[in-house]
Amino acid sequence: MQDSRMTPPEDAINVKPQKKKPSKWMSTAVQIKEGCWGKRSFPSVQQATKWIQERPVNVHLTMLFSPRSKFAFKFGHQFCQPNLSLYLTISIRDLFHPKKEDGKTTMVFPSAPRLALPALSSGLRIHTAATGEDHRNSPHQVFVPPTTGPCLSSRRRSHEARVSWITDDRHVPSLVEYGKVSGKYDTAATGEHTSYIYFFYTSGKIHHVTIGPLESDTVYYYRCGGIDQEFSFKTPPAALPIEFAVIGDLGQTEWTASTLAHVAESNYDMLLLPGDLSYADTQQPLWDSFGRFVQPYASKRPWMVTEGNHDIEAFPVFHCHPFVAYDSRWRMPYEESGSASNLYYSFDVAGAVHVVMLGSYADFNASSAQYKWLVADLAKVDRRITPWLVALLHAPWYNTNLAHQGEGESMRQAMESLLYRARADVVFAGHVHAYERFTRAYDNKANPCGPAYITIGDGGNREGLALQFDKHHKSASLSLFREASFGHGRLKVVNGTHAHWSWHRNDEDDGSTVGDQVWVESLSASAACGGPLGGVPSASTKVEL
Q1: DSSP code of 25?
Q2: In angstroms, rounded to a whole number, what is the distance separating the alpha carbons of residues 195 and 505?
Q3: 213: preceding bond cis by omega (within 30 degrees)
Q4: What percent of the chain lies above the pLDDT cut of 70?
Q5: What's the pLDDT tens digit per position in 332-370?
Q6: Tens digits of residue pLDDT in 93-128
Q7: The Purple acid phosphatase N-terminal domain covers which part of the protein (predicted)?
Q8: What is the pLDDT of residue 47?
Q9: Host H or E run for residue 442
C-alpha cells in the first residue's frame, strides 16, 4: 500500500514556531497523532512544532486536555486517503496568525497564546473545500435511508425515503425533485435543514427531505436543491428475497475503498452498518470527507446505520453533548418506529424482515428509554407475518478476540433475554476489527433458540485489524469461525424460513473471496423453539446453524 505521507497535497500546511523567547506554555508536553500510524510524544511544544515543520504532510489541529487538566493542543494529520482531493481552509483569530505565500498557509504560533475559555468561542472555524472547482452550491455527502411506517409495508407496495445531503451555500433550498425517468423529475418535495458548531468547526447546511410514496424495487432519479447534478437510487423489494450488505467499523482508508468496491459488485438491496462510521474522532472535516467517500454508494442504495464509540465525540465541560455530528448528518427513521432517539430504532423491509438497530452507547438498563422502547417494539412483531428478526449493535456481546474484551457485557446482561424471548435470528456487531461467527447462544451457552452472533467490525478503518484471539476464552467453544481480515458480509433472505450468510475477505489483489458461509433457518419456523416467546429448550436439543 502506498504511504500517503510520501505524496502530500499541494495545499499542505506547514507549522512553524515564532522566533521568540519560549513561554512556559511552549514547554508543555504534547502528543502528535500520526493519522493512521500511531502517536508520537514530545516533551515540549517547541520540539513538536519543529517535528511538524519537517514532515511533508497535511497538518490539522484539535484540542485535548492534559492529565493535569491544563489546556494544550494536539497536533496531527489524517491524510490517510490520498485519493480524496480535500484540504483545510483555516481562518484564525486570537490564537494564531496565518499568512499565505505561493498558495500555502503558514501557521505561526505566538509565544503566549490566549488559552482562556473565551478563546473557545473566538473566530476559529474549520471548513472543508474541494479542489478544482467551486462546490459551494453542489450537493455532496448524499445518502438515502428509507423511512418506516405503513408506506414501507408490502401490503401498500410503496416506500418513503429520506434524502440527506450537505451544501456549503446556505441559500440552497431543501428541495428534492425526482422521477422514474432520467432527467425527468415529475415530483418534488421539500424538507428541513440543520447545521452545527463543534468547537472551531461549522458544518455546511445539512438537508433532510422525505420523498414518496415510491414504488418498490424501482430505480428513481433525483436531484437536490435545484442543482443539475443527477443521482439515482433503487428502492428495496416489497417481498422476499432481499439481500443485505453488512459492514462494521468502516472508516475511510484504502482498505475501506476496497471493501466498498466489493460490496458494489453485489446486487445488494440495503446496507447495514453497526457503528463507527467516519472515524473522525472529533476532526469534523473528516465527517465531510467520509460523506464524500461513501456518496457513490450511499446515494444509490439505502444505508441503515447505528452508532459506535468513535461517533460519540463528547468532551467534559466544553462539549458535553455526544453524537452531535452523527445525529445531525446521519438521521435515521427513529421517530417512525416510536423511538425518541436517533441512536436506536427499527424498521420493516421486504414485508418479512424486522430489523432492530440498538444503541450500545445509549442507556440500556431496565429503567431506560431504550429498554422500554425495545420491549414495546418487539411486542409488535408478529412472526407469522414477519418471520425474520435481525438486530444490530456496536459492542459485541460474544467475543473471543483479545480486543475490547467484556465491553458489551453489561448490555448483554440487560437486554439479551429480550432478544432471546423474541426469538431473534441473528445479532450483528462491530467494534472488534475482525470477523467472528458464533453458534446460536443464550447466557454464554449454546442454545438452539438463541440468536446467531456475528462480529463484522472489519470494514477497513485506520486502526487496523485485531489480530489475536483467545483460544482459551470461556466462549471459545461457541465460536465457529474467526479471522482477522478486512471484508464484508452478505445476508440473503431467500424466503420465510431460510437465509444464506456469507463473509467475503478482501484479497491482496483487490479481489474478494468467500471465507465463510452458512445457511440460517428462521426461528419462527422452528418447532423445537415453540415460536416467539417459547420456553427454554431442553439440553438435549440439537444446536444447528
Answers
A1: G
A2: 38
A3: yes
A4: 70
A5: 999 999 999 999 999 999 999 999 999 999 999 999 999
A6: 333 334 444 443 333 333 322 222 222 222 222 222
A7: 154-235
A8: 67
A9: strand 435-442
- Model pTM? 0.75
Among the listed residues 208, 404, 431, 504, the single catalytic one is 404
C-alpha to C-alpha distance for 234 and 374, rounded to whole angstroms: 29
What are the domain boundaries of the chain? 4-130, 239-272+351-525
pLDDT digits (tens, 9 = 90+) for 219-233: 999 999 999 999 999
| CA–CA gap between residue 332 and residue 329 (Å, rounded) | 9
What pairing do the DSSP bridges indicate for beta strands 345-349 and 125-130?
unpaired
Q: Is 404 a catalytic residue?
A: yes
User: Does residue 1 surpass a pLDDT of 70?
Assistant: no
pLDDT of 17 > 50? The answer is no
Q: For residues 6 and 35, is the Cβ–Cβ distance under 8 A?
A: no
Q: Which of 392, 393, 391 is nearest to 381 (CA)?
A: 391
If we measure between CA atoms, which residue out of 213, 206, 231, 220 comes closest to residue 153? 213
- For residue 77, pLDDT over 90 is answered with no
Q: Please give the Cα distance from 194 to 524 (Å, whole number).
A: 42
- Of all residues in the chain, what percent are helix, strand and coil, respectively (each to 5)? 15, 35, 50
Number of other residues whose CB lies within 10 A of the CB of residue 280: 22
Query: 409-421 and 369-379 helices cross at what angle (nearest 10)?
Result: 20
Give the architecture-level CATH label for domain 239-272+351-525. 4-Layer Sandwich (3.60)
- What does the angle CA 230 – CA 234 – CA 240 come to, to the nearest 5 degrees? 180
CA distance 332 to 143: 11
Cβ proximity of 65 and 72 under 8 Å? yes
